[in-house]
Amino acid sequence: MNTDFSSGQIFLMAFEISNAEENMQKDLNLLKLCNKENTPLLRFYDWDRPSVTFGVSQKYPEVKSFMGENFDYAKRPSGGGIVLHKDEITYALAVPREHFFAELKAAESYKLIHKKIAEAFSEIGVCATLNETPSCGKNPLCACFTTPALYDVVSEKFGKLAGAAQKRNKDGLLTQGSIKIFALENKISKENFIKILAEKFRKILF
After folding, report:
1. Which residues touch 63 (CB under 8 Å, ≥6 apart)?
2. Torsions phi, psi for 16 (to 5 deg)
3. Any catalytic annotation for residue 144?
């Protein structure tokens, strides 16, 4: 793994496949590492089986009762509702506490990230915009990909394409996001779309 943090560019971590608990721990470790190295860090990853993550304020027994037995479960360090991780691109973007991006208001940083994801979809011919209407209600068992929240990426044809949740602590800002890949429609491989996304994220951070 490349460990050169001196290039002034976003450090793209190696793609990994792990179980739900391991993925959430790796995201938290990414946040600690980004502050230690004083550089934004980005990782894309996958799941070893269909998995469900849920927000830090939600309770596992209630989520499992709502979603069923056939998933691997883990609590996210960030907020948000229930997310089924299947047929998607999952990412974690960690920004150190003294970086300008970590100092933005939550809505602003969320909007900038999703604007870049929408641009990536547009580049491959998928019309995508940002949802401008707050939703997802007050239901603590909200399945986030059934109803878009403010500034989520949406498409008239495909519905919600991307959403995320954030965590701030002494190390900085962590954004955990999911992007549904059914909208790629064989226009581009998952691997090549990840390359486009990584470049889009780099442009808002450096």
Report:
1. 52, 54, 73, 82, 141
2. -135, 155
3. yes
Distance CA 198, CA 193 (A): 9
Which candidate in 34, 127, 142, 144 is catalytic? Answer: 144
Residue 40 confidence (pLDDT): 97
- Exposed e or buried b for every residue in 101-138, given b needs 16+ CB within 10 A? bbeeeeeebbbebbbbbbebbeeeebebbbbeeeebee
CA dihedral 74, 173, 180, 71 (to 10 degrees): 0
Strand partners, 143: 82
pLDDT tens, position by position, 102-120 = 999 999 999 999 999 999 9
d(C-alpha 93, C-alpha 110), whole Å = 11
- Please list the residues that pair with 54 across neighbouring strands: 75
**Residues 54 and 60 sit within 8 Å (Cβ to Cβ):** yes
Residue 105, classed as helix, strand or coil, is coil
pTM of this structure: 0.93
